[in-house]
Specification:
- The protein is mostly helical.
- The longest helix has 24 residues.
- The relative contact order is 0.05.
- It has 12 helices and no strands.
Length: 269
């Protein structure tokens, strides 16, 4: 890290320490790790949104907001004598070196898959207290992302299909079980079968090397865009004139064409 970079980080640390110090900002002084953890999650999503929008300036700003939380949590820990931002950076540097022996050591890795092998082996050596393959996966992860991570870990034990044909067939099976549950009218079983169906769709996404979380997020974004297109068109209707089903279908098709013209992702259907 250059001297100028050191001074920039030092200035940031000094600003946050001043905000937290006696006579500083009352709001900043009142915060705890717990009180701002929700905001940390929000900042992560804003970073993801800036990436999806492909807006470098927005990404720069959102990464700054995310860095603020890293520094803020480090400052609160430093005030209690637990650790400082320097300790965080030092620990991360050492971890990156340990987990890349093919770069900083004598190991060899020619493919991304071989890199993952080194990474996982080093993690096991660092954390011998972890007994299950699922240890270390946060329960607070979004459900789709957590499901995909569970499946990837289970696959390392051989609990997986050989290819995408397995989850494809399983989806048809789960749909049949869901229809049977709906016919039975048991709300709890219906919920369970929908969960099984979603879990299997995630498995198919994994086999196709697609992030289920990103795929659903993109689909939701496309849906919102199309509905907003239709909302705008409906504002031009005379008061009291409700559109027919056929008119709504036509507007829906127009919204898809309009989205395609803006270069957005293709329709998932």
């Amino acid at each position: 890290m250059s001297t100028s970079s050191d001074s920039v980080i030092h200035r940031l640390e000094s600003i946050i320490a001043r905000l937290r110090a006696p006579g500083g900002c009352p709001w900043d002084r009142a915060q705890t790790h717990q009180s701002i953890k929700g905001q940390l999650l929000e900042e992560c999503f804003e970073v993801l949104e800036a990436i999806d929008r492909n807006e470098p300036e927005a990404l720069r700003e959102e990464l700054g907001d995310l860095l603020l939380h890293v520094l803020f949590h480090s400052q609160m820990a430093n005030e209690r004598g637990s650790f400082s931002f320097h300790d965080v950076a030092q620990s991360l540097s050492e971890k990156l070196i340990r987990r890349h022996p093919h770069v900083f050591g004598d190991a060899s890795a020619e493919t991304a898959e071989e890199v993952i092998v080194h990474w996982e082996r080093t993690k096991r050596e660092e954390k011998p207290e972890r007994k299950s393959v699922f240890d270390g996966i946060p329960l607070a992860l979004p459900a789709l992302l957590r499901a995909q991570k569970y499946q990837s870990k289970a696959a390392k034990l051989g609990l997986d299909w050989n290819d995408a044909d397995g989850p494809r067939a399983k989806i048809a099976e789960e749909l049949a079980e869901l229809e049977d549950a709906v016919a039975g009218g048991d709300p709890k079983r219906i919920e369970e079968e929908i969960g099984d169906l979603l879990f299997t769709v995630v498995n198919l996404a994994r086999h196709l090397r697609v992030s289920a979380e990103c795929a659903l997020s993109a689909a939701a974004g496309r849906f919102r865009s199309r509905v907003e297109f239709i909302e705008e068109k409906l504002r031009n209707l005379p008061p009291g004139n409700a559109p027919t089903s056929a008119e709504l279908e036509l507007l829906w098709q127009q919204s898809k064409e309009a989205a395609g013209g803006r270069g957005t992702l293709p329709d998932p259907s």
